[in-house]
């Protein structure tokens, strides 16, 4: 495959000329597209995974992925460098030797497609990890859910241009959005938020995550690692997501639209 533009240097958005079909007419047009770029996470000089990502907030993505995949926590990462090449981007991380040994023992060099949650794990047990039990006394009002859901659209400038990008956000107990990140992959967007939380030492137990996608089980696993007690999604969850959320002590909210939602697990965390 030959690519005529340097992908690694692409901005998050790109303009493209189109032929617009309207009935029997054809008109010239120009649209904005979401960019996706292969991003390699390289630990101590060794590539661990290549993911298709929106090329922004990559330090947050790297920290969040490292945390939610059990590789390293933010305080263990000594250095992060984002290096752009013509055909992609490397995020180079320096981690302690003990963390690098754990990574070597997992024995994988992976390629993940857009938004891939499994990233080519080699064993079923790697995919279906025992969920971390969330420790949080937090409860949330319905009004907080409605407020966060209503505000999320304004925090998605890339998607507002393209209608092709997921968003994830962390909201405080009142439903005010504290951190919003966007990516073509829903898992990447959540990792970016969790990474930003870790870098800023934000207490996940005091708020909740909200996502624009369906609630898949991987998102629940990531929320549990970050000790977030509630995850709200604009679409429905899968049955496995519900099962894992129940085991992790996470309130799983789906179909959050306007002032309606379904609470699938631990409804005691949501009050009037």
How does this structure look, described?
This protein is an alpha/beta fold and 272 residues long. The chain has helices at 58-68, 97-106, 124-127, 142-152, 157-162, 186-199, 217-225, 239-248, and strands at residues 13-22, 25-34, 37-43, 46-53, 79-85, 88-94, 110-112, 140-141, 166-171, 177-183, 208-211, 230-233, 251-257, 260-263, 270-271. The chain folds into 2 domains: 37-127, Ubiquitin-like (UB roll) (Roll); 140-271, Cytidine Deaminase, domain 2 (3-Layer(aba) Sandwich). It has a 6-stranded mixed beta sheet, sandwiched between helices. Strands 5-6-3-4-7 form a 5-stranded mixed beta sheet, with helices on one face. Strands 1-2 form a two-stranded antiparallel sheet. Strand 1 (13-22) and strand 2 form a beta hairpin. Helix 1 (58-68) crosses helix 6 and helix 7 (217-225) packs parallel to helix 8. Residues 117-124 have low confidence and may be disordered.
How does the SSE layout of this entry go?
Elements: E1 13-22, E2 25-34, E3 37-43, E4 46-53, H1 58-68, E5 79-85, E6 88-94, H2 97-106, E7 110-112, H3 124-127, E8 140-141, H4 142-152, H5 157-162, E9 166-171, E10 177-183, H6 186-199, E11 208-211, H7 217-225, E12 230-233, H8 239-248, E13 251-257, E14 260-263, E15 270-271
Parallel strand pairs: 3-6, 4-7, 8-15, 11-12, 12-13
Antiparallel strand pairs: 1-2, 3-4, 5-6, 9-10, 9-11, 13-14
Helix pairs in contact: 1-6, 6-7, 7-8
Query: Helicity range of the residues?
Result: 25-40%
Span between termini? 56 Å
CATH architecture of the largest domain: 3-Layer(aba) Sandwich
Which runs of at least 5 residues are low in confidence (pLDDT < 50)? 117-124
Strand order of the largest sheet: 10-9-11-12-13-14
SSE order in H/E notation? EEEEHEEHEHEHHEEHEHEHEEE
Binned strand content: 25-35%
| β-strand number | 15
Main β-sheet, in a few words? 6 strands, mixed
Q: Can you identify the CATH class of the largest domain?
A: Alpha Beta
Radius of gyration: 19 Å
